[in-house]
């Protein structure tokens, strides 16, 4: 009951925030240099005035800005995101077609980084003054500091070109005609490199954060109490230290989860993964504003949804956080 | 001067030519290649950008094809006659041709495509069609084009990418841009559209009912979509990809890939386009408005260096405004050799005061960025105060469309004839804001306008040649734009892909004749 009210309140706020975001994005994009019609015409390699006028009229770009804004906002209110200028396809269809690939990639990376990060961080915390603990932290630092695109390219060079173990790019093997289980296996193979690449950075952050906050929690009085009452060290670590150390990690996981729609531009580009990040980058280059705004909308919506989820998870992890205050 | 790489290519091309003669073509097999960037659509005429032409040129056809010397070859037209006065062109169409949906291709399709479809949608076809008075189908397989006056390059205008034949029975009376068949293009070509997995691959399959007996040899062509340049190079290296069309990998990767075993390379297959790199110079204001300044820029640039270092020795440093593949080139002109002293003299003569100017590189990848840096250094050597401004494609379009630049890189297609691809850069009635492809530099010269306009419709060719020679002299003196390079855009492929480049548009219609020796 309390949860239901909380969610309702948050959803109501979310709608207002989304509405403001839509308007803000729309206005922001008007400031970017580059007229979509001119860019489309430029791509065509030949353009006369008639061609430009046709394009502007078709996309409603010949209308004053407030008319364009009104059309856009009233469209969104009916979940109509308009047409992509460049592709002539409804924006909603484009996003939906790309969403599964992106969610598969970012979702896998999310789980991978969270699980491995927490495990590695706990191990490092338990081995705080041993070489193995330092080694974990050193590795985490390297992954944290290395640029993503470099990791991506190097992993292709090593695992795909040199060792030949894994495919270098794409979602599946083109022309192989796999179906069913074979297709799933094929996709899984293609997923390994991009998902690992994407996971490394966040994994490093989770590792560092888990270690720090576990060491912090280990100093607390309740841990001394637990130890004094004779609990096994492994239980203390799991039940008392780790659980209390989780809060900052949940915050961070919420942030990472919010980036699941648009956060993999680089990885998707290097690995030719047909996802939303690439679609967004291409839309930006082409000044395909309708498409870009559509993707922004979905990203924003996802961030808001994950904020709400994060708040709920907080109160599950730490019942002291008052539900009403969230 | 030929660099070792260029020599190696010639040798490889020779070896390849002999090998091709020795074997009989085999049928079967699918070729994997790359399309970059992903095209916005595949209906030619509605979309005409380069990637669309490359893929869809194998689905659709025009009336004619062109050799690498730009001589017309039969395609959908079996033969053609030109009247004595150069105003009437009669095309005799091939019989027994069907669209991919089984309907027969007839003269009515030609009339519809030219007179209705392209007139409404296609700016490049429109530029040619303004010379056309009427288009008539005199029977099912004969079409007569009557021109308002002779138009020299008319026979060069029927290439599939420019003048595609589209099916009347699917498009007539519909809103072309919203036509349901746009998702599934129907042409007459050797390959049929099969599938487009957005962001991943475009698959074409063999047209079993193709009208040329035995063609095509291939079962299909898969166009992979790989957005990152380094990943594209890797895909060729690990042999997923058989053919790298020009422009799909960065120039600095080319020598490495070309040196691999079983890799061949050709510079042929771009004669129809003849991409010509130029430096826009703003003729309206600033130091670039002075002819002597523009001449100084020409003398200051070491174009041979750019060719050898940035373009692997491929391509050609042009003499002047007309490229070597364009007709009617005047080769009596004095070349603008690299001559910094002459450049300094000219700058002194005009009293250049060191006013700062900017260069806008073309945002098409590393090679262009480095090229802008090289030119910047050349210009600084002769005392020109110049800085580079980076931008993305959208910003570049906008700046050029608004004439907001001093120097800017670009490249334009020459389309084999000055009236199609060259005059547009210099005609004063082609000055208009909003497009990066017209007379962007703002050059105005009445005599040049006169000569270009007369030459376009002069008849026969000897008349045209006289006029074009004069116009080249004037342009050569005035330097409205900088002439940088005729670009060498090599195609790389596994040597067992035979007979790939057979026309002046290369892989754009090349898979028709290609076969796999595997």
TrEMBL record, chain A:
<keyword id="KW-0812">Transmembrane</keyword>
<feature type="transmembrane region" description="Helical">
    <location>
        <begin position="187"/>
        <end position="206"/>
    </location>
</feature>
<feature type="transmembrane region" description="Helical">
    <location>
        <begin position="12"/>
        <end position="32"/>
    </location>
</feature>
<dbReference type="InterPro" id="IPR035906">
    <property type="entry name" value="MetI-like_sf"/>
</dbReference>
<protein>
    <submittedName>
        <fullName>ABC transporter permease</fullName>
    </submittedName>
</protein>
<feature type="transmembrane region" description="Helical">
    <location>
        <begin position="103"/>
        <end position="126"/>
    </location>
</feature>
<feature type="domain" description="ABC transmembrane type-1">
    <location>
        <begin position="99"/>
        <end position="314"/>
    </location>
</feature>
<feature type="transmembrane region" description="Helical">
    <location>
        <begin position="291"/>
        <end position="314"/>
    </location>
</feature>
<keyword id="KW-1133">Transmembrane helix</keyword>
<keyword id="KW-0813">Transport</keyword>
<dbReference type="InterPro" id="IPR000515">
    <property type="entry name" value="MetI-like"/>
</dbReference>
<dbReference type="Pfam" id="PF00528">
    <property type="entry name" value="BPD_transp_1"/>
</dbReference>
<dbReference type="Pfam" id="PF19300">
    <property type="entry name" value="BPD_transp_1_N"/>
</dbReference>
<keyword id="KW-1003">Cell membrane</keyword>
<feature type="transmembrane region" description="Helical">
    <location>
        <begin position="138"/>
        <end position="167"/>
    </location>
</feature>
<dbReference type="InterPro" id="IPR045621">
    <property type="entry name" value="BPD_transp_1_N"/>
</dbReference>
<feature type="transmembrane region" description="Helical">
    <location>
        <begin position="245"/>
        <end position="271"/>
    </location>
</feature>
<keyword id="KW-0472">Membrane</keyword>
<comment type="similarity">
    <text>Belongs to the binding-protein-dependent transport system permease family.</text>
</comment>
From TrEMBL, chain B:
<keyword id="KW-0732">Signal</keyword>
<dbReference type="Pfam" id="PF00496">
    <property type="entry name" value="SBP_bac_5"/>
</dbReference>
<dbReference type="InterPro" id="IPR039424">
    <property type="entry name" value="SBP_5"/>
</dbReference>
<dbReference type="GO" id="GO:1904680">
    <property type="term" value="F:peptide transmembrane transporter activity"/>
</dbReference>
<dbReference type="InterPro" id="IPR000914">
    <property type="entry name" value="SBP_5_dom"/>
</dbReference>
<feature type="domain" description="Solute-binding protein family 5">
    <location>
        <begin position="71"/>
        <end position="428"/>
    </location>
</feature>
<dbReference type="GO" id="GO:0043190">
    <property type="term" value="C:ATP-binding cassette (ABC) transporter complex"/>
</dbReference>
<dbReference type="GO" id="GO:0030288">
    <property type="term" value="C:outer membrane-bounded periplasmic space"/>
</dbReference>
<protein>
    <submittedName>
        <fullName>Heme-binding protein A</fullName>
    </submittedName>
</protein>
<dbReference type="InterPro" id="IPR030678">
    <property type="entry name" value="Peptide/Ni-bd"/>
</dbReference>
<feature type="signal peptide">
    <location>
        <begin position="1"/>
        <end position="22"/>
    </location>
</feature>
<comment type="similarity">
    <text>Belongs to the bacterial solute-binding protein 5 family.</text>
</comment>
<dbReference type="GO" id="GO:0015833">
    <property type="term" value="P:peptide transport"/>
</dbReference>
């Amino acid at each position: 009951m309390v949860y239901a009210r909380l969610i309702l309140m948050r959803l109501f706020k979310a709608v207002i925030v989304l509405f403001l975001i839509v308007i803000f994005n729309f206005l922001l994009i008007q400031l970017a240099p580059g007229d979509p019609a001119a860019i489309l015409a430029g791509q065509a390699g030949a353009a006369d005035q008639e061609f430009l006028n046709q394009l502007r009229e078709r996309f409603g770009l010949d209308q004053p800005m407030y008319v364009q804004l009104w059309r856009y906002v009233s469209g969104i209110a009916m979940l109509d995101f308009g047409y992509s200028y460049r592709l002539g396809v409804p924006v909603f269809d484009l996003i939906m077609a790309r969403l599964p690939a992106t969610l598969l990639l970012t979702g896998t990376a999310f789980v991978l980084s969270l699980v491995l990060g927490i495990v590695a961080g706990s191990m490092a915390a338990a081995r705080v003054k041993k070489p193995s603990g330092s080694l974990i932290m050193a590795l985490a630092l390297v992954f944290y500091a290395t640029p993503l695109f470099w990791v991506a390219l190097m992993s292709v060079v090593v695992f795909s070109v040199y060792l030949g173990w894994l495919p270098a790019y794409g979602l599946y093997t083109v022309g192989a005609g796999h179906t069913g289980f074979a297709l799933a296996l094929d996709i899984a193979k293609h997923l390994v490199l991009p998902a690992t690449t994407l996971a490394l950075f966040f994994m490093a952050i989770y590792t560092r954060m888990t270690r720090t906050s576990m060491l912090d929690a280990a100093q607390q009085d309740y841990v001394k109490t637990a130890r004094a009452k004779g609990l096994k060290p492994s239980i203390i670590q799991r039940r008392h230290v780790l659980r209390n150390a989780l809060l900052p990690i949940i915050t961070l996981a919420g942030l990472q989860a919010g980036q699941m729609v648009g956060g993999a531009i680089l990885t998707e580009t290097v690995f030719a993964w047909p996802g939303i990040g690439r679609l967004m980058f291409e839309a930006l280059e082409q000044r395909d504003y309708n498409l870009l705004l559509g993707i922004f909308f979905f990203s924003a919506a996802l961030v808001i949804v994950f904020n709400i989820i994060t708040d709920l998870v907080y109160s599950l992890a730490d019942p002291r956080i008052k539900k009403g205050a969230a | 001067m030929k660099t070792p790489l260029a020599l190696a290519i010639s040798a490889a091309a020779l070896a390849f030519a002999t090998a091709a003669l020795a074997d009989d073509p085999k049928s079967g097999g699918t070729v994997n290649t790359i399309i970059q960037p992903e095209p916005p659509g595949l209906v030619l005429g509605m979309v005409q950008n380069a990637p669309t032409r490359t893929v869809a040129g194998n689905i659709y056809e025009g009336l004619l094809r062109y050799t690498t010397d730009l001589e017309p070859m039969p395609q959908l037209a079996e033969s053609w006659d030109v009247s004595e006065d150069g105003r009437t062109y009669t095309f005799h169409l091939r019989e027994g041709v069907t669209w991919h949906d089984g309907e027969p291709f007839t003269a009515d399709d030609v009339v519809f495509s030219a007179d209705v479809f392209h007139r409404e949608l296609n700016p490049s076809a429109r530029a040619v069609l303004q010379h056309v008075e009427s288009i008539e189908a005199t029977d099912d397989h004969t079409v007569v084009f009557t021109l308002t006056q002779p138009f020299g390059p008319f026979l060069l205008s029927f290439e599939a990418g420019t003048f595609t034949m589209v099916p009347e029975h699917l498009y007539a009376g519909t809103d072309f841009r919203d036509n349901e068949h746009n998702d599934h293009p129907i042409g007459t070509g050797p390959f049929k559209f099969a599938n487009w997995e957005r962001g991943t691959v475009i698959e074409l399959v063999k047209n079993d009912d193709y009208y040329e007996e035995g063609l095509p040899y291939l079962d299909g062509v898969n166009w992979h979509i790989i957005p990152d340049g380094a990943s594209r190079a890797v895909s060729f290296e690990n042999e997923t990809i058989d053919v790298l069309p020009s422009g799909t990998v960065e120039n600095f990767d080319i020598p490495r890939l070309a040196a691999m075993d079983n890799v061949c390379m050709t510079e042929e297959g771009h004669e129809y386009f003849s991409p010509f790199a130029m430096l826009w110079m703003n003729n309206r204001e600033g130091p670039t408005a002075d002819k002597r300044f523009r001449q100084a820029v020409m003398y200051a640039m070491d174009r041979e260096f750019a060719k050898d270092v940035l373009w692997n020795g491929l391509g050609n440093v042009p003499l002047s405004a007309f490229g070597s593949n364009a007709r009617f080139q005047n080769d009596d002109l004095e070349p603008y050799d690299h001559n910094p002293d002459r450049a300094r003299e000219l700058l002194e003569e005009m009293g250049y005061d060191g006013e700062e100017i900017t260069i806008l590189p073309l945002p098409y990848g590393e090679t262009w960025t480095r090229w802008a840096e090289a030119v910047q250094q050349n210009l600084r050597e002769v005392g020109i105060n110049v800085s580079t401004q980076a931008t993305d494609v959208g910003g570049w379009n906008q700046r050029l469309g608004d004439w907001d630049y001093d120097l800017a890189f670009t490249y334009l297609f020459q389309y084999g004839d000055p009236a199609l691809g060259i005059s547009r850069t210099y005609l004063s009635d082609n000055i208009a804001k909003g497009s990066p492809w017209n007379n962007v530099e703002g050059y105005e010269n009445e005599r040049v306008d006169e000569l270009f306009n007369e030459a376009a419709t002069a008849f026969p060719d000897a008349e045209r040649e006289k006029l074009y020679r004069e116009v080249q002299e004037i342009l050569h003196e005035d330097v409205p734009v900088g002439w940088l390079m005729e670009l060498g855009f090599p195609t790389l492929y596994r040597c067992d892909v035979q007979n790939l480049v057979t026309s002046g548009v290369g892989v754009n219609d090349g898979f028709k004749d290609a076969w796999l020796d595997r």
